[in-house]
Amino acid sequence: MLKRVIQIAFLFIGGALGFVFLPPLYEFINLSSNPWLNNPYVSVALGAILLFVLSFALSDYFVKLIVWMEGILFKIPAADLLFGSLGLIVGLMVAFLIGFAIERIQIPIITEFLPMILSILLGYLGFRVGFTKREELGQMFSKSNTGQKKKSGDSIAQPEEKQLYKLLDTSVIIDGRIADISSTGFIEGVLIVPQFVLTELQHIADSSDTLKRTRGRRGLDMLKKLQDERLTTVQISEEDFEDVQEVDLKLVRLAKKMGAQILTNDFNLNKVCDLHHVQVLNINDLANAVKPVVIPGEDMQVVVIKDGKEQNQGVAYLDDGTMIVVEGGRSYIGQAITVTVTSVLQTSAGRMIFAKPKDEQVA
């Protein structure tokens, strides 16, 4: 099909070339006096026949050339092709204007050939400039569109970005790890501390129990540390629910009202949030996620510290606090042994690894 199209194109191009170039050729070889040859219809027919016959020899090469050009054009991104074409059009317009001025001067030879040379040269340069400067031109168009939108901003309301809120409960404040996580920049949005959580934290800090008092004061220090950080915005919410006494239920209701997430490390609050379809971010889940992966069948060196709940069990701990239950490890208490992991139990409360002494398993 493409070959037929090329042959038809050669036919029309040959007719046009015959109409333009054959009459001057007749004058040059002194054949213009022949009335049969000096007919424009004959010139068109001769040119069309000559190029049509020539197309049978050249059509295969032109088909390969067109297929090659299609492959190149299809690989070029649409934006690059668009800006390159715009540059080509600008280059041809400049060449036309210069050629129009040169034709007025009427310089021999130069007047005939210079416009064609300028069209090829400036067209190529325009395409290259448009193709190379496509990113800068795109930024110029985007900036101009942004400026127009700002000018007409009174009539068109721009959508506002939704703010992300995260509620802190008492346990995650006392735990203190939230301050270290926040300082790394992994927490986005605004941290909200409800007033009822702050009140509960203050009661803990004023407790007569030394341990509770220490934990409460630690929580207040962590809040101060969070407020002093520039990476995190901490706000105190005065919203309260007088008809609810439990702090956890107040947190759930406030999260529903604000469309917020709850940051906690309380396993029970995690379950309550799941029941109420409130998104919860558990610090323990994050800590478990970044712990080294342990695969069943892997060997590790541990020290059995104490006996377990079940008969003949021993308990060991990793450096990060992960508990390892060693089956048949009671007799190895106080010893460093090599164990083989049999299974791993992962929950929101933590991770537990079950293992057996390697020597026993081999036996």
Note down, in words, how this protein is organized.
The longest helix is centred in the first third of the chain and has 36 residues, at 40-75. It is elongated, with a radius of gyration of 42 Å. By secondary structure, the protein is of the alpha/beta class. The protein has helices spanning 2-28, 40-75, 78-105, 110-132, 134-151, 170-175, 177-183, 195-205, 210-228, 247-258, 267-275, 283-289, 358-362, and strands spanning 165-168, 190-194, 233-237, 261-264, 280-282, 299-307, 313-317, 323-327, 336-347, 350-357.
Q: Could you tell me the strand content as a percent range? A: 15-25%
Average pLDDT, rounded to a whole number, is 78
- Rg of Cα set: 42 Å
Percent of residues in helices comes to 55-70%
Query: Quaternary state, please?
Result: single chain
List keywords for this structure.
single chain; 363 residues; alpha/beta; five-stranded parallel sheet; five-stranded mixed β-barrel; elongated
Describe the SSE topology:
Elements (H helix, E strand, L loop, with lengths): L1 H27 L11 H36 L2 H28 L4 H23 L1 H18 L13 E4 L1 H6 L1 H7 L6 E5 H11 L4 H19 L4 E5 L9 H12 L2 E4 L2 H9 L4 E3 H7 L9 E9 L5 E5 L5 E5 L8 E12 L2 E8 H5 L1
Parallel strand pairs: 1-2, 1-4, 2-3, 4-5, 8-10
Antiparallel strand pairs: 6-7, 6-9, 7-8, 9-10
Helix pairs in contact: 1-2, 3-4, 7-9, 8-9
At a glance:
Helices cover 57% and strands 17% of the residues. The protein contains 13 helices and ten strands.
